[in-house]
Amino acid sequence: MLFTTLGSAQKYVGGDISMLPKYEEAGVVYRDKNGKAVSDVIAFFKQEGMNAMRVRLFVDPSKDSDKAVCQDLDFVKALGKRIKDAGLGFMLDFHYSDTWADPGNQWTPDAWKSLNDAQLQQKIYEYTRDCLQQLNAAGASPDFIQTGNEISYGMLWGTKAAANDDKTNRCYTNSSAANWARFINLLKQAGKACRETCPGAKIVIHSERVPKPGVLTDFFDRMRNASLDYDIIGLSYYPDHHGNLATLETALKTLENKGYGKDIMIVETGYGYKWSIGSEYNYTGTYPLSEEGQRKFTADLIEKLNGHTGVTGLFWWWPEDNGMKQVTSGWWNAALYDHNTGKPYAALYELKNFRNDDTGVDNLQLTIDNSQWYTLGGNVLCPSSSNLRPSTKGIYIHGGRKVMVK
Question: Where are the alpha helices (DSSP H) in 13-116?
Answer without folding.
Answer: 20-25, 41-47, 73-85
